[in-house]
Automatic annotation (TrEMBL):
The keyword 4Fe-4S does not apply. It holds the Pfam family Por_Secre_tail. InterPro entries: Secre_tail (IPR026444). Coiled coil: none annotated. Residues 1-20 form the signal peptide. This is T9SS C-terminal target domain-containing protein. It comes from the Bacteria. Keywords: Signal. It comes from Hanamia caeni.
């Protein structure tokens, strides 16, 4: 009864439950979507693939708005400048690239790549550097195209495999964004399907490495960023999963597991404290907890030691939905006590079972409920990387588990045995909680079946739980699916039972007043300016917020504080902020990483996504120390790249007292000058290049 339309969710937040009831917005059209247009929700009908819009109310407030096209949901869509680009289907053009702004007039064909009714079928949409990238078919076969976010023009990025069939199948590009680069999987016709990289230009689009020799193709499983590297899993010819890395230039093997074809090698990559943790398999220990720092990989702990019939026991740790609590990560693992909840700080000594919830061999089979951040999908996050793993509800996280008596029920944990408790038994042992949930400021919405009402929406504040509404009256199930928030209300789909089949769903609004997190970050950008890196960001709402800490890194792992910007404390309107990093050249790197630390008055801390800035634009920087100076003046100067540079020292009357010419310089340079011969007083030092000049003062004592 779940929808299968392919859309991106742009907006997710935490909201307040206030004796909410569910109000039906639209009946029997299986509408699903997300807020994107000004004051409206974009929706797609899973019944007939038509385009709809809603202002959050029923009746005429929710209606079909486009009658000239339908969407091919299997091919997805992309978002650029508050418009949605999608694979549109009509009788005249087949399946081609269309755009919509939520109005009939603004829904139109963008380009007919293949004239007539034959379809080009655009797919693999992703936004990168302010442009929209996608694959499409033409006389060049299926290749990558770029739609400019500035002027709307469309151009082929690079004809990787000239002619038919081109470099891609539909929905095969597997786009990933990492450290300012766009990665994808393509076939150039001679190397098979391999990993490529692009900086958004044709010349900067290249094959990284032919991992499988000749025209044999390589299979890629999971991608995740660790510092300045993209870590990924390669499926070998024997179906072992080996660990690889790339920085966009160099691509190499981290660890080969060399396990039989029935094993997995590595899977379930998750970043924690500057390392990646995962389930790794070797012939001696089976599948256990492993880690890598990007250079080598090793087992962290043999959770289930020993063997059975000559085959090593495996704990098979599940890290894909891991959460972070009190300096440890939580996960599930199996031993002779069954599958239970575990925690680890990355060491063998502190990798321990939290609580034996279901004593004996059966195990509780817990399933953690981490906070989902769908906006990470827009950043090229992999299928295991869209969680806010460190975001908790009052210091705890919810999960489902079976204690052997009450069935699968809702539990919560703070990472300790004493703080791991069942919230409430709902129904008998054959009933309990489902797998759909949505965190709010004051609790959790989730699905549950109490045996009398079927699977319906419930809410808990962490202490007790109650059913929100029996949407499908009686023993029938509405199977709610919580989707998005609009105008301070939670929307989702459910089945009220009056449709032709259980697959026909209704759009519902849960009438709970919004209560967002202390800071809801809307936008965060970093841009290189002539003399600074300019950081800008916006918030939609703020509650109890103290300030924003600005942090910079040269490796994407170790961040330093470089400034603070005061927050608005409490705000329900959009606020804009900015910070200029004027000392960015002193970091001594051509690639910088920035993030925000969001600090609340109650001591809670949350981090923004990480942005990268490459110093590839003309910039000048000039610093002197010590200042005042007695004998030796150290001058730190730099440009992003300059053919020539000159340092001059002069007095305040303009008399030149020192001059040194340099050839080509890159990034930063340190020059020491003996100033013992200068009289006491104030002097000017000037850096001159073909790109401009920079001036500083120093005092000689």
């Amino acid at each position: 009864m779940k929808k299968n339309y392919v859309v991106l969710l742009l907006f997710i937040a935490f909201y307040h439950h206030a004796n909410a009831q569910a109000t039906i917005i639209n009946d029997n059209h299986s509408l699903g979507g997300y807020p994107i247009f000004n004051g409206a929700i974009f929706l797609v009908s899973d019944v007939d693939s038509t385009l709809w819009t809603s202002d959050g109310t029923s009746g005429t407030g929710t209606k079909q708005y486009a009658f000239n096209v339908k969407i091919d949901q299997d091919l997805g869509n992309g978002i650029l400048n508050n418009k949605i680009y999608f694979a549109g289907v009509d009788a005249t053009h087949g399946t081609e690239l269309w755009v919509t702004d939520g109005t009939q007039a603004g829904t139109k064909l963008v380009q007919d790549f293949i004239a007539g009714t034959k379809s080009s079928s655009p797919a693999d949409f992703i936004q990168y550097k302010g442009d929209l990238y996608f694959t499409d078919s033409s006389s060049s076969g299926r290749e990558i195209y770029k739609l400019s976010g500035t002027n709307g023009t469309i151009s082929i990025l690079k004809d990787i495999n000239p002619g038919i069939p081109g470099a891609f199948d539909r929905n095969s590009a597997d786009f990933q964004i990492s450290n300012g680069l766009l990665y994808f999987v393509a076939d150039n016709g001679t190397s098979g399907k391999e990993l490529w990289v692009s900086n958004g230009t044709s010349s900067g689009t290249k094959l990284l490495k032919d991992i499988s020799d000749g025209n044999a193709s390589t299979s890629f499983f999971q991608f995740i960023t660790l510092g300045n590297q993209l870590i990924f899993i390669v499926v070998t010819a024997t179906y072992s999963m080996d660990l690889w890395k790339t920085d966009g230039t160099n691509t190499s093997l981290i660890h080969s597991f060399n396990v039989p074809s029935f094993a997995y090698g590595a899977f379930g990559l998750m970043v924690f404290n500057k390392k990646i943790y995962f389930a790794g398999t070797d012939v001696a220990h089976g599948t256990e907890l492993w880690s890598t720092d990007g250079n080598s990989a090793s087992m962290v702990a043999d959770i289930f030691p020993g063997s059975s019939s000559g085959i090593p026991n495996s704990s098979t740790p599940q890290l894909f939905n891991s959460v972070f609590i009190k300096g440890k990560f939580l996960f599930t693992a199996a031993t002779d006590k069954g599958t239970e909840l575990w925690s680890s700080d990355g060491t063998a000594a502190n990798t321990q079972m939290i609580k034996d919830i279901n004593a004996g061999e059966e195990g509780a089979d817990p399933v953690l409920f981490p906070v989902i951040n769908f906006s990470k999908l827009l950043e090229g996050a992999g299928i295991f990387d869209f969680y806010d793993r460190g975001t908790l509800f009052n210091g705890s996280i919810f999960f489902a588990a079976n204690d052997g008596t009450n069935g699968t029920q809702l539990w919560k944990t703070d990472g300790t045995a004493g703080g791991t408790k069942m919230v409430q038994a709902i129904g008998g042992p054959n009933y309990g909680v489902g797998d759909d949930y949505f965190y709010t400021k004051t609790g959790l919405y989730f699905t549950a079946n109490d045996g009398a009402h079927g699977a319906e929406p419930w809410f808990t504040n962490g202490t007790t739980a109650n059913m929100v509404q029996d949407i499908n009256p009686g023993a029938g199930s509405s199977d709610p699916d919580f989707e998005f928030v609009f105008n301070s209300k939670l929307f989702g789909t459910a089945d009220n039972g009056n449709g032709a089949s259980s697959d026909i769903l209704d759009l519902y609004r849960i009438d709970a007043t919004a209560s967002p997190l202390p800071v809801q970050l809307m936008d965060f950008k970093a841009m290189l300016q002539p003399n600074a890196v300019q950081l800008t960001w916006k918030t939609a709402t703020e509650i109890n917020s103290r300030d924003f800490g600005i942090q910079r890194s040269t490796d994407g792992l170790n961040f330093s504080d470089i400034g603070t910007v005061a927050a608005s404390v409490n705000s329900t309107t959009e606020k804009s902020y900015g910070f200029n990093d004027n000392q960015y050249l002193e970091a001594g790197s051509n690639l910088l990483y920035y993030r925000l630390q969001l600090n609340d008055l109650d001591g809670n801390i949350k981090y923004s996504n990480v942005l990268t800035v490459k110093l590839d634009a003309p910039t000048l920087s000039l610093k002197t120390y010590p200042n005042p100076v007695h004998t030796q003046l150290s001058i730190l100067f730099g440009t992003a790249s300059s053919k020539t540079a000159t340092l001059k020292i002069s007095d305040l009357k303009g008399h030149e007292l020192y001059r040194q010419d340099f050839g080509k310089i890159e990034a930063i340079r340190l020059q020491n000058i003996n100033v013992c011969g200068l009289a006491k007083g104030t002097y000017l030092i000037q850096l001159i290049t073909e790109k401009g000049s920079s001036l500083a003062k120093f005092v000689k004592q």
